[in-house]
Write a structure and sequence with these properties.
Blueprint lengths: L4 H13 L21 E5 L2 E4 L4 E4 L14 H13 L8 H13 L5 E5 L2 H16 L3 E5 L17 H4 L10 H4 L2 E4 L4 H11 L3 E6 L2 E2 L5 E2 L2 H14 L2 E5 L11 H6 L5 E5 L9 E5 L1 H4 L18 H17 L2 H21 L5 E5 L2 E5 L8 H5 L3 H13 L2 E2 L8 E2 L6 H17 L2
Parallel strand pairs: 3-15, 5-6, 5-7, 7-10, 10-11
Antiparallel strand pairs: 1-2, 2-3, 4-12, 8-9, 11-12, 13-14, 14-16
Helix pairs in contact: 2-11, 3-11, 12-15
């Protein structure tokens, strides 16, 4: 059982200076009635906290550590760039290099604009969609989290669901009314709302693989319907692949589903663990951006050379190693072993995974939308996650978040994880 005295002290101090003591709400561990862990270093599949406890990490900075923490080639790329400068506020060759790598892996992206976060990417993609189509309405889906931009905090997942917050406090009603939300994986609900607003529908934005209401893949027929209807209506389809891009496959979820969106948003992996975002797609749409077109978007640190160096190094590794089958095998193996242990204790556990991205739910049936996730067993989840963290297994502290496995997770570490879980279940949750 880990002691976290230093983390508790640091959290108390942080609350004096930072709202809630954290810079992103889920980190506060309020959803599981726990205390956040303060970390000081990471290597491979492991995290090390301020009390020198070791954890097997299944969060991986929420996805980008697909090749493990502190990968030597990524660290080298960052180190070499640091020696040349951290930021210029001017063009660099490495921006084009990274853009070309992304385009090679994701053919739907003909041109791409680098930004500083996933929120920036989705916010900018929405503005571009409205400017290009000269329409106003946006359709999103319950539980899909597209960042904290005003118009996208409508029935969002992630921390919004974790804390049970109202749909959009602080968002003007006249802005919120331009965004309509449908039930994820519900074709009838989508068609009903689509027919109401299609004449003024700029875009439909969706996580094809949702990672902010747990882990819930879109149904192929559902995603194909959205693609068909948006194309017929001359509305844009935006795939938010900030989390799934380069995570579920080299070409993202769109490669798996064989669906070509008009615009794609990216983040996480393309910065190699540094702050980054991007949006890209059809050339005619992207050329509507300034300085070529009338839709304005800018960022002083966009295309930051440190993030580009790290992202470029990581994407090259992924192209070279193509680790996705191995990642899927690892995550599938771990989840199957978990299910077997829970079954022995007559506790319902449902699981799913694609590549090294996974989810598990305390429910008999695998949830397929936000309401079904909400109705999974809260108490069992909280008890289980707290015990895991106390015993050095670092799963996401919210049932609305996905989990991640890296290439550095060994069979030994997965077996250690299963052994810890077995001990926890024997004690009771």
């Amino acid at each position: 059982m880990n002691k976290i005295d230093k983390s508790l002290k640091l959290f108390k101090e942080a609350k004096l200076h930072i709202p809630g003591g954290v810079n992103s709400p889920v980190r506060a561990f309020k959803n599981i009635n726990g205390n956040p862990i303060f970390f000081k270093k990471a290597k491979g599949s492991k995290l090390f906290d301020e009390d020198n406890n070791e954890y097997i990490d299944y969060i991986g900075s929420w996805g980008p550590m697909i090749m493990g923490h502190s990968h030597p080639k990524i660290i080298k790329a960052i180190s070499e760039q640091v020696k040349l400068g951290t930021s210029y506020g001017a063009p660099t060759s490495i921006e084009s290099e990274t853009a070309e790598l992304i385009k090679t892996c994701i053919p739907s992206i003909e041109k791409i604009r680098m930004v500083n976060s996933g929120t920036e990417a989705t916010m900018s993609a929405i503005r571009l969609a409205r400017g290009f189509t000269k329409k106003n309405k946006i359709i999103k889906f319950d539980g899909c989290y597209h960042g904290h931009a005003d118009s996208l905090l409508i029935k969002a997942g992630s921390g919004v669901s974790t804390f049970g917050l109202p749909d959009s406090p602080g968002v003007p009603p006249q802005l919120a009314k331009e965004t309509l939300s449908c039930e994820f994986n519900n074709s009838k609900d989508f068609l009903k709302i689509f027919e109401k607003v299609k004449n003024d529908l700029a875009a439909v934005i969706i996580e094809p693989v949702a990672g902010n209401m747990g882990f819930i893949p879109g149904k192929p027929s559902f995603l194909e319907l959205i693609r068909k209807k948006t194309a017929q209506n001359k509305s844009l389809l935006i795939f938010d692949e900030v989390m799934s891009g380069f995570r579920v496959s080299l070409g993202g979820a769109q490669e798996i589903y064989k669906i070509k969106p008009d615009l794609t948003t990216l983040g996480k992996i393309i910065g190699g663990g540094l702050p980054v975002g991007a949006f890209g797609g059809r050339k005619d749409i992207m050329d509507y951006l300034a300085p070529n077109g009338p839709v304005y978007q800018a960022g002083t640190l966009s295309g930051n050379p440190l993030a580009m160096a790290a992202g470029s190094a990581l994407i090259k590794l992924l192209i070279k190693d193509n680790p996705y089958k191995g990642l899927e095998a690892k995550s599938k193996s771990m989840l199957e072993k978990m299910k077997s242990l829970f079954l022995e204790k007559n506790i319902h556990l449902s699981t799913n995974q694609i590549g090294g991205m996974f989810g598990f739910f305390f429910s008999e049936e695998l949830p397929k939308n936000l309401n079904e996730v909400i109705n999974t067993n809260d108490q069992q989840f909280k008890s289980f996650i707290n015990e895991c963290i106390k015993n050095g297994i670092y799963f996401a502290p919210s049932k609305f978040e996905a989990g991640f496995i890296s290439t550095k997770h060994t069979n030994k570490e997965i077996n250690n994880t299963i052994s810890v879980i077995k001990e926890i279940l024997n004690k009771g949750i």
